[in-house]
Amino acid sequence: MKKPVKTPKLDLLQKSVIDNTDKLLTTNDGVPIYDNNNTLKAGERGASLQQDHIYFDKLMHFDRERIPERVVHARGSGAHGVFEMKEDISKYTCAKFLQKGAKTSVFTRFSTVAGFKGSTDLARDVRGFSVKFYTEDGNYDLVGNNIPVFFIQDAMNFPDLIHSVKPEPNNEFPQAASAHDTFWDFISLMPESAHMIMWVMSDRAIPRSLRMMEGFGVHTFKLVNESGKGTFVKFHWKPKLGVHSVAWNEAQKISGFNSDFHRQDLWDAIENGDFPQWDLGLQLISEEDEHKYSFDILDATKLIPEELVPVQIVGTMTLNKNPENFFAETEQVAFDPGRLVPGIDVTDDPLLQGRVFSYMDTQNYRLGGANFHELPINRSINQKHNNQKDGNSRIDILKGNVSYFPNSQADGCPYHAMLKGEVGFTSHKQKVDGEKVRQRSLSFADHFTQARLFFNSQTEPEKQHIIDALSFELSKVNDPKIRNREVAILHQIDKVLAQKVGENLNIEPSNTLDPLTIKFAQQIFPGYPFKTAKPEKETSQALSMVKSNKNDSIKTRKIAFLVADGVDKHSVTNLTKLLESEGAEAILISTKVGELKFSDGTKTNIQHTYLTDTSVLYDAVYTPSGKSVKILLDHPDYYEFVNEAYRHCKVLAFAKESESLLEKSLIKEDKGVVSESKNKSWEHTFIDLIKLHRVWDREILRKIPS
Ligand code: HDE
């Protein structure tokens, strides 16, 4: 029996939870309904009557059940949890939830950006990573992404960026895909996107699981301490399970087999008690160091290499409860980077400044008016007190005759903090002088140095995946001028990158940017392009998933056991026990659902078959011994399963009697192919290799089709 999770926010939400168990069906007004099958008619074969208020009540609600989906980040999955602060950073911030030992209820929503609400989880895309902290000082939202930089520098370009990536307006395709003309048209005219493009074309844009991706606040924010001193900060979420991705070929297939792959994975992990966890890390930069770097810390297309400013781990978030109701919680939750609490403030980053308007604005529309703060999921755990009243679907009942300030009739209440010398939100004091201009700072004009830093920091297989992704996306572009323009941008990042992508597209990369790219860039930066400053770092290990992972666990990994009737029971159970003791899951895949007979005559229930499942849904593959081998020898789907797993650089293990299957497959033996007959401690070798996630050496060979 699962222990119920308790947090102040969940206690509050519980008051809104409705349980229909053993309850009589009623109308929305609570009137008991006698017959829920038949409308009221003039005679049993006659027309329906207009007085059927029971039917109207039901249909009127049904007809209004859809609200506008989010204009971006429409598809998402959320969960409740707790954030626990472990370190003392009181010298940097007075935010109460960031004080050592504080435990704060959170609701976290992950999302894809471009696809509609019903699109696939495995689109090549940025993932949203939004956390709402229900603090005792009100709600604080950290609305970030799984990529630390962004496509554009100024909010003015945001609607254009999104229009370019969304399905094209005349025919509304492609869905949840950036591989089309309008996106690359925009990107190839906006060289400031170069760094972000490297990330989005890397495997970071196709995570293995929402539980295995990093989160970033992206912008530089400000922490403010009790005496009003500010410190610049970058927020990082580091997953305890490490950062892992699937390959693009897998992503495309997963979209077909299970387009809810990420959503279901998050849900199942929480239901199974495998609570996902992330450490919160901070990069702190003193105000004195604001101009110290070769890049501008207010430019959202730049990151601060971790080797330059280390990430300090200060706390941990644990997601431990699934929502009771998707619509009421995950759909109606409203995040806003402008939702700040005392101790945290925004900076002048022009992208962040623009966001502060947009979220509240879109939520007023999407959630049907000004009272969306009163929806249970959005309510702060401390009661709000103000003079706002009325509006669509107002829930709170404001008592008394006073709804204005200042007043004497209610003794000045609700009073603002300054009246009684209490702490309230104050914007961080900052000197501002300058002319009112529509202009971009020249300190934002270097577009390629950090794109190069990212590319150069990758391992060879990771670089190859970026080359493959760019080749795929640009091959889908119909207009050759767009392809040429983008390859010219790639040339500015790295010559080999441009050469290799160019080879796949039949393009000889140009040494210079396309004149049209320069023309548009010069409208932002007159005189563009410029000589760039020497970077502090040429590579950063933290930017490579392969180099930075600890690879120390196989927790929650799914291992496919390929079986058929007659499989040897010990060959299944021994490894299952070992894998489960390491926190992984063994899943039997057989020729049909229902009963599977073991060699000793005992039976087990099968839920997965070669028809419903493929290797792309699993992390590693094992073929046990037994009479099953004879059946599988003639089963084409078996070979497809193992060949494909091999092609995707996954680890495969073969029990003694199953090696005839290995011989008949297209697999070439390497360190990621583990045989019981050749390796005494094969089970442990298998587990150690799964920890590495993939056998990357195999990527270079690319011999097996998949
Ligand atoms: Fe958003 N973004 N965004 N964004 N964003 C929205 O707000 C916007 C940006 C992010 O799970 C919208 O309530 C502008 C950066 C996430 O509910 C909208 C700009 C980052 C989510 C909006 C940006 C994000 C959103 C749509 C450029 C990473 C999902 C629905 C100035 C730091 C939140 C909504 C959720 C959602 C506007 C750029 C992250 C339209 C104008 C950079 C995770 O208001």
Distinct compounds present: CIS-heme D hydroxychlorin gamma-spirolactone 17R, 18S
Radius of gyration, rounded? 28 Å
Count the E strands: 18
Distance between the termini: 42 Å
CATH topology of the domain at 76-150 and 208-363: Catalase HpII,  Chain A, domain 1
**Judging from the principal axes of the Cα atoms, what is the shape?**
globular
Explain what you see.
Strand 13 and strand 14 (603-606) form a beta hairpin. Among the domains are: 76-150 and 208-363, Beta Barrel (Catalase HpII,  Chain A, domain 1), CATH 2.40.180.10; 454-547, Hemocyanin, N-terminal domain (Up-down Bundle); 551-701, Rossmann fold (3-Layer(aba) Sandwich), CATH 3.40.50.880. Strands 1, 2, 3, 4, 5, 6, 7, 8, 9 and 10 form a 10-stranded antiparallel beta sheet that branches. Strands 15-12-11-16-17-18 form a 6-stranded parallel beta sheet, sandwiched between helices. With 706 residues, the protein is α/β, with parallel strands linked by helices. Helix 4 crosses helix 12 (480-493) and helix 11 packs across helix 13. It has 21 helices and 18 strands. The radius of gyration is 28 Å and the shape is globular. The two termini are 42 Å apart. The protein binds CIS-heme D hydroxychlorin gamma-spirolactone 17R, 18S (HDE). CIS-heme D hydroxychlorin gamma-spirolactone 17R, 18S is lined by residues 70-73, 76, 109, 111, 128, 130, 143-145, 150, 155, 158, 218, 300, 335, 351, 354-355, 358-359, 362-363. The site of CIS-heme D hydroxychlorin gamma-spirolactone 17R, 18S (HDE) has 25 residues, from strand 2, strand 3, strand 4 and helix 9. Residues 26-413 form the Catalase core domain. Keywords: Heme, Hydrogen peroxide, Iron, Metal-binding, Oxidoreductase, Peroxidase.
